[in-house]
Design brief:
285 residues, disordered N terminus, alpha+beta, elongated, four-stranded mixed sheet
Length: 285
């Protein structure tokens, strides 16, 4: 791995779901192609979030994306997708502004990273843990789309995660456990219960998971003050499933309090959002 990539990794800054790289460090693809394509119609190939298109892949040093919007590319390259629970609380909450075509026009992208750059997996890209690749995407967006962005603080409805009366009911993780966290359950079954779980997970992990649309649908801020890694699980019924009369499991609010000794409280909080100041359609190459 080249030293310039070690430097880039060290200067990546995470702030409320936005990843950025210092302007003095410019990383770029060796070769990049951006071509406008006809939008994939509803019923076509599905991408992240179940929307048409939006398929991307990483193979060694090659990044490819099919039928992606500029909106999607910004979310991936600036880590919004990872840090904001796929940014599905509201599609515009953490990324706003820009002309309408930013969210509708689709592009095919093929890019080749330098040979000495890190090799990332699909999961690392999805989780915002590919700093050099994200920096190269940011450079591409600036050069090819003339993209300019700025940050603003915006008050949003959130949930605050705190310790419930009686204290936490969390088990410290064992050294040999493999890290994992998420939500189990079949979303295709409308009356099915879910389970939020964690293995070697800090409180930042469940705070991220709890913000998913099928859990609370809002950003969740960790205010427990708990450090360390824990193993836990809690069964609950998603809010949307109440309409189906499913009472087999408690709500996520009751479940967290009774099973984990944690509490979710509704609040408003200022969060940092990324605003599209300017963007232009790229010329076909």
């Amino acid at each position: 791995m080249g030293s310039k990539f070690l430097i880039a990794s060290a200067i990546v800054l995470l702030s409320f779901g936005v990843t950025t790289v210092a302007q003095s460090q410019r990383l770029e693809f060796e070769v990049v192609s951006v071509r406008p394509v006809k939008p994939i119609p509803v019923g076509g190939q599905r991408g992240p979030g179940g929307v048409p298109g939006g398929v991307y892949d990483i193979q060694n040093h090659r990044f490819t994306a099919k039928a992606v919007t500029l909106y999607m590319l910004i979310k991936w390259s600036y880590g919004i997708t990872a840090k904001a629970s796929s940014c599905i609380f509201s599609e515009c909450d953490f990324l706003t502004g820009g002309p309408s075509w930013v969210r509708s026009d689709q592009f095919d992208v093929q890019a080749l990273m330098p040979d000495d750059s890190p090799i990332y997996t699909f999961a690392q890209m999805r989780d915002g843990r590919a700093p050099a690749l994200q920096a190269m995407l940011q450079t591409m967006l600036h050069d090819r789309f003339q993209l300019s962005l700025h940050r603003e603080m915006k008050r949003m409805p959130v949930y605050v995660l705190t310790i419930a009366k009686g204290g936490p009911k969390l088990t410290p993780s064992k050294n040999d456990e493999k890290p994992a966290f998420g939500v189990n359950g079949n979303p295709a079954v409308p009356t099915g219960a879910r389970m939020v779980f964690g293995r070697k997970a800090s409180m930042a992990n469940p705070a991220l998971v709890l913000g998913l649309p099928n859990v609370t649908g809002r950003p969740v801020l960790d205010r427990t003050g708990l450090s360390g890694e824990f193993t836990f699980e809690a069964k609950f019924t998603p809010v949307d499933n109440n309409a189906f009369g499913n009472t087999s499991s408690p709500s996520i609010f009751t479940s967290l309090q009774e099973q984990l000794g944690l509490k979710l409280e509704a609040a408003d909080a200022p969060l940092e959002v990324l605003v599209i100041g300017h963007a232009e359609k790229p010329s076909e190459n």
